[in-house]
UniProtKB/TrEMBL annotation:
Keyword DNA-binding: yes
DNA helicase Holliday junction RuvA type domain boundaries: 1-62
Oligomer status and interactors: Homotetramer. Forms an RuvA(8)-RuvB(12)-Holliday junction (HJ) complex. HJ DNA is sandwiched between 2 RuvA tetramers; dsDNA enters through RuvA and exits via RuvB. An RuvB hexamer assembles on each DNA strand where it exits the tetramer. Each RuvB hexamer is contacted by two RuvA subunits (via domain III) on 2 adjacent RuvB subunits; this complex drives branch migration. In the full resolvosome a probable DNA-RuvA(4)-RuvB(12)-RuvC(2) complex forms which resolves the HJ.
Residue ranges, annotated region (Disordered): 155-178
Annotated region described as Domain III, given as residue ranges: 175-226
Keywords from the named record: ATP-binding, Cytoplasm, DNA damage, DNA recombination, DNA repair, DNA-binding, Helicase, Hydrolase, Nucleotide-binding
Lineage, uppermost ranks: Bacteria, Pseudomonadati, Pseudomonadota, Alphaproteobacteria, Rhodobacterales
A GO biological-process term: DNA recombination
Keyword Aminoacyl-tRNA synthetase: no
CDD domains: UBA_RuvA_C
Protein name, as recorded: Holliday junction branch migration complex subunit RuvA
Stretch list, region Domain I: 1-64
InterPro entries: DNA_helicase_Holl-junc_RuvA_I, NA-bd_OB-fold, RuvA, RuvA_2-like, RuvA_C, RuvA_C_sf
Amino acid sequence: MIGKLTGRIDYKGSDHVMIDVRGVGYIVHVSERTLASLPPVGEVVALYTDLLVREDLMQLFGFTSLVEKEWHRLLMGVQGIGAKASLAILGTLGPEGVSRAIALGDQAAIKAAKGIGPKTAQRVVIELKDKAPAVMAMAGSLGETLEAEAEAVVEPAEPAPARPARSAKKPSGSAAAQSDALSALTNLGYAPSEAAAAVAEVAGELPEADAQSLIRAALRKLAPKG
């Protein structure tokens, strides 16, 4: 299993890139969002990958984070969702957007992806709603350091243009705050799916909020009405 690739981008297609890893070119299929986030041709890149093997086909799919890769794996397990549909959903919403949409049961957001009909969107939400809390927690606990790793692993090209040093990316503050809030609410006894939906809703309303603010707002959402 090929779990990660680090190399230089040889070229970019409409839905894939070729990455040169020490003289071997790997074609890696990616979502539109991931493709847009990659550096220019000739630059170093690192991607987490998932290898799809069939009788007559082998394809690599690339992701900029383990959270994106995990959602791809889960989406592929839903009836009617193949690799193309999964990348369409991730390309439209991004991994955090997928977490929020599924936690909130927002079928319309899933259906906004190209090629996704209402019945398929409904299956995605129903089958994966209980998975959202774990993936949201994963998002808060993982750092995004692929870019820094890539610079360290790949030898400079000859000749190598001078470039300013790049610092490692820090975990998303929003994702970390959501993870902390989710953990706190589940520790208080709320069901994971119920807590995830509340956290996702208030995170959408308060995108810059810290964990404590999210917890307070989510508790107000979860409070009995009447």
